[in-house]
Automatic annotation (TrEMBL):
It comes from Floccifex porci. Its EC number is 3.4.22.71. Gene3D superfamilies: Sortase. One of its GO terms (molecular function) is hydrolase activity. The lineage of its organism: Bacteria, Bacillati, Bacillota, Erysipelotrichia, Erysipelotrichales. It comes from the Bacteria. CDD domains: Sortase_B. This is Class B sortase. The active site is at residues 138, 227. The chain crosses the membrane at residues 21-42, 264-286.
Amino acid sequence: MKRKDRKISLLRKIVSMIDSTVNIAVLLFFILCVLFSGYSIWDNNHIYTKASPSVYETYKPEKEDTKSFEELIKINPDVYGWITLYGTEIDYPLVQGENNQKYINTDYEGNFSLSGALFLDCNNSKDMRDTVNIIYGHHMEKDKMFGGLDHYEKEDYFKEHRYGNLYVDGKNYGLEFFMLIKADAYDSSVYNIHASDANTYIETIEPLSIQSFDIEDAKRLVVLSTCSDSTNGRTLLIGKICDETFEDPYLEKEESEEESSIDWYHMFLYGISIVLILCILIVLVWSKKK
């Protein structure tokens, strides 16, 4: 009987140890999940914060004072201009690198950033005097960088957001957008910075248009290019560079509440995970007492 009792007692200890080990492993797994979720939320918010126009608004060149903009150029000599599309999130400095890869993952201050920067094709002239001037930018959520170009697929939105401003070479130019197209990233007829005639270029790309409006006397064009749904798919917004500038009709409207930088959906999941861990701890403590 004693031997049998010892065996039963030993078996219970082994089972208890296995149970405790499994409980600890499960608990550690949930703790790691919570830590990873917390890091993911922080990292996600950090990326979109770096991509927000508000980060660079202190550098934006004003009509009477460009001191702040000059300070940004001192930080990064590749900065050469500023682009604004009225009523949108697109309100950023412009850079140009020695190649078209540098600013895919580099921000305006020259630091590594997954959001990158809006950059002019390396083969374009920095004063944007070419007939076709192509600016690239990431397609990001929350309309950051060129993520908002998709809105131009809607005719009403396009009509309400046709104008903007380009600051380059110490001067402001008006922007009048008139066409949105879908194209392949390797379509040389679209990505043709050597085009000599704007009207011929417009006629060439018009069959690819999703939205299009009449435009007169186009001499210089700006092409905003970003990724679309397919691997090589691109969405491009085409605009005319004008010597005269346009008033921003959205300045007089009440400023909307600043967008929260908190991802509430993931914060909710993070909170649920913490509660779940607390529940597991309570169960473990209660089972030990029992």
